[in-house]
Amino acid sequence: MNKLIQIIILSLLQAVATSSTAHEAHVHGSATVLLAQDGNRLTLEFDSPLDNLLGFEHAPRTDKQKQAARALLDIMQKPDTLLKLNAEADCQLTTVKVVAPVLQAAAATASKDEHANLHAEYEYSCTKAAALKSLHLSLFDAFPAIHKVDAQMAGARGQVAATLTPKQRTLTW
Within the chain, how many helices (H) and strands (E) appear? Predict the structure, then answer.
């Protein structure tokens, strides 16, 4: 049942994000973070054009691009270096799913130069869920091409949304 509530909350957040930013569905320099809390479970989704993260959006062609793509996929498996929940909540990462078809093996032979995104989903279990109150983004340091992140959170205390930037990196609820 809890998983169903998380799915519903994330679906609603995505619907709001899609309707409010439909005209900027793929904008270089922008990314999106959606969070949904249900009890001690937190789901976090991150979306960004690959250009923000790598400087290109096609299948890697050169050895340097292939190395950069592997490094990106590796760092996205360890989100705590980029997306930091407040420590008081004692949240432990339980599930990671990173999808970037143009970078992953099945699509590596693709030759079209199209817009491509990276989508990551993270699930956490928080020992002190009542203390969960903020998300700090360190990803601006790792990916300087990201100039703003549209962030939304939905949980027991309500909903909050903010545009985060290198100068304002923390979403608080």
Answer: 4, 9
Say if residues 97 and 120 touch (Cβ distance below 8 Å): yes
Q: According to the 3-state scheme, what is the secondary structure of 64-100?
A: HHHHHHHHHHHHHCCHHHCEEECHHHCEEEEEEEEEC
pLDDT at 19: 39
In this predicted structure, what is the pLDDT of residue 125? 98
With a pLDDT cut of 90, the percent of the chain lying above it is: 76
Lowest-pLDDT choice from 2-6, 101-105, 119-123, 160-164 = 2-6
The dihedral over CA atoms of 76, 167, 86, 52, expressed in degrees to the nearest 10, equals -10
| Separation of alpha carbons 105 and 109, rounded Å | 8
Q: Using an 8 Å Cβ cutoff, are 94 and 124 in contact?
A: yes
Give the Cα separation of 91 and 9 in Å (integer): 19
Q: What is the pTM of this model?
A: 0.83
Calpha distance 5→38 (Å, rounded): 7
Q: Tell me the residue type at 72.
A: L
Q: What tokens were used for 94?
A: 């339980």
